[in-house]
TrEMBL record:
A GO term for molecular function: acyltransferase activity, transferring groups other than amino-acyl groups
Coiled-coil parts of chain: none
PANTHER family per record: AMINOALKYLPHOSPHONATE N-ACETYLTRANSFERASE-RELATED-RELATED
Keywords of the record: Acyltransferase, Transferase
Source organism phylogeny: Bacteria, Bacillati, Actinomycetota, Actinomycetes, Micrococcales
The keyword Transferase is assigned to this record: yes
Residues in N-acetyltransferase domain copies: 9-168
Domain of life: Bacteria
Protein name (record): Putative acetyltransferase
C-alpha cells in the first residue's frame, strides 16, 4: 500500500531493499538528536530493521526516489507494541533523515499514519510513546491533535527514562 503525501513525498511499506537506509536514517536521527549514545542498548533495537519488519509494519517516506524517513506501526498485543490498547494503532521509532529534517517530512508522515489508521476496521485512536527529552516530537504530536495521556506514562525498565504517552482519537 502507498499513501501520497504533500508535495513529492510518499509513505509506503518498506521492502527489504529499504532496510539499510532505514537503519542508517534511524541511527543518524537518534544520534544527532542526542537521544542516545552509540553504544546504548536501545540503538541495537533501533538498528534491527529486519526484526521490526518481521514483527511489525515498517513504513518509509520517500522523496524523489529516496527514502527520507521511517516509522514502525504496530497494534495491541503485537511484539513491538509498548502501549497500544485494543482499538489503537501505535507508531514508534519515527525517524527523519537529518538532511531532511525541518522540511515537513515527519509531519506529513504522521498525518498519513492518521489517515491510514482511519481506514482500518476497529481502530479508533492512535498512541505514541515519547521520552520526556524528545521535545521537538512533543510539539509535532500536539500540533497534529495528539494529547498527553499521563495516566499511561511509564519508565523504561532498568533506566531512569520516563516515557510520555500521547494519544489521538480518530
Amino acid at each position: 500500500m502507498s499513501v501520497a503525501l504533500p508535495a513529492t513525498v510518499m509513505l509506503r511499506r518498506a521492502v527489504p531493499a529499504d532496510f539499510p537506509e532505514v537503519r542508517r536514517i534511524t541511527r543518524e536521527a537518534y544520534l544527532r538528536a542526542g537521544h542516545f549514545a552509540a553504544d546504548h542498548p536501545y540503538m541495537s533495537v533501533l538498528e534491527d530493521v529486519e526484526h521490526r519488519a518481521e514483527h511489525a509494519e515498517v513504513w518509509v517516506a520517500e522523496a524523489a526516489g529516496k527514502v527520507v524517513a521511517a516509522v514502525t506501526v504496530t497494534f495491541a498485543g503485537q511484539p513491538y507494541s509498548e502501549i497500544a490498547q485494543d482499538g489503537e494503532l501505535e507508531f514508534r521509532m519515527l525517524a527523519v533523515d537529518p538532511a531532511h529534517q525541518g522540511g515537513g517530512v515527519g509531519r506529513a508522515a504522521v498525518r498519513q499514519i492518521v489517515e491510514h489508521a482511519r481506514q482500518l476496521n476497529g481502530i479508533e485512536a492512535i498512541s505514541i510513546t515519547s521520552a520526556t527529552f524528545m521535545e521537538r516530537a512533543h510539539k509535532l504530536y500536539r500540533s497534529l491533535g495528539f494529547r498527553r495521556a499521563p495516566e499511561r506514562d511509564w519508565y523504561v525498565s532498568g533506566e531512569n527514562i520516563l516515557l510520555w504517552v500521547f494519544r489521538r482519537q480518530l
